[in-house]
Amino acid sequence: MSDDIKITKRSFLSMIAATAALSVADRSMAQDKGPTWDVIVVGGGNSGLPAAIFAAERGARVLIIEAAASLGGTLFLSSGQMSAAGTKLQQQKGIDDSGQLHYDDIMRISKKTANPRLVKLAVFNAAETFDWLMDHGFDVRPEQPVTGTTHEPYSRARYAWGKDGGKSILRVLNEQLKPHLDAGRVQALTSTQAKELLLDAAGAVVGVAALDGSGKLQNHYGKNVALTTGGYTANTKMFEQYEKAKRYSVATYPYSQGAGITLGLGAGGYVRGGEHHLGLFGAIMTNDTYPSPFVATIRPWPPTTPPWGIYVNRQGKRFLREDIPSHDAFEQALRVQTDERCWLVLDDEMIRTMPPFIGRWTREQILESFGTKKNFFKAGDLEALAAATGIDGKALATTVAQYNQGQARGKDALGRTHMPLPIAKGPYYAVRLQSWALISFAGLAVNDSLQVIRRDGKPIRNLYAAGELLGAGQCMGRSYCGGMSVTPALTFGRLLGQRILKFAT
User: Fold this and answer.
1) pTM for the whole structure
2) How many angstroms separate the CA atoms of 234 and 261, rounded?
3) N or C, which end of the chain is more exposed by having fewer CB within 10 Å?
């Protein structure tokens, strides 16, 4: 074979790949293209709606593709908690605050695990987002803003939420979107699933292939595509793949299926942030077939509900000081326990004396649950309780004895001081508690212009992403920072529509 026609294996594979790319482009371009939108927004929720509103205000023609039957996404279920520094509301109340102080707080609370560049983009632009909402009818409770509730507090009062939770935010977004829908600047396709991103021969995104409610697949072309589809907490396979943890709970928006991740990966993007996984504390599961609904939660908050019993792990040992006033401490401690699971252990005198400790349940409801509901255990002695729960029996007996010694002294080895009673009078009780999830911590990687990037850091042309699709860990790290899920989502969507997306009108 002569040198001029010699083909190496590498060059052959490159030719095949290039031919395939050209074939896909040729097929898609050969179809009736219809209109080319200035912006295609995939996902009509926290980020997608402000992206569409602000792009339309600049004169863009915008198409929203939404899998659900209604726009709004997780705002239907969200508590709508926000945090912003330097707002008009703070100024009215004499609160001195700044984006730098907000940034410093996030890095402190997250123990420097949050993404500094994205945190800065979020917090230095959050006040404008918050003020815009309030200028258009968003309202908060009279006592707000506050420094925090049960997670680690901010150094300034900048934490607030709508009277109707996320629906308060959605109401404003819908009102601001409506004129653009009525004028035809924005079109919304609901009950429509984005299936694939359309790429040209150079790998730039040129549109979206979407399946409508009738089962028809149609190509939609655009100068910019913004992925704002939310997280993957309703997708067991994706949750466990990226967070390296079991998905125990059914507690989230059913359309949080990770569609944006699938789309982004198909265009050459990648996923990061799963190492930040952090479950919430205290779900009592309905059954052991996971993911499971839960019957209730125990959310310890010692300042208002001081602890009575003890929390032990499968090894029968305590793993934190039960009267520590921090949900973060409970969550971080549970994260490293076997199966992210623990048991609240009590005796009969405690359970009949202490205030009710499960949500809004009465004492009678709690007592009735032992022996009738899954994950409620009752036994005549500690050995039988350990056998019923699967806890190490010898270790449990030692742990209870050590706790009782500390209780008699008024302070135990962990530093706990609120110990009204010893664990000494049978029957004995245990409630099994599990971690649970509301948000996803991993997500598509973007740069600080919200462009989806490849592993080499190069952006995928015309492709952007915002909201929970980026992974909550980017703006919170391995922690829960008040308001740093909803506010960055809204802010990044606003920034996309207002100044990042490029189009000629």
Assistant:
1) 0.91
2) 13
3) N
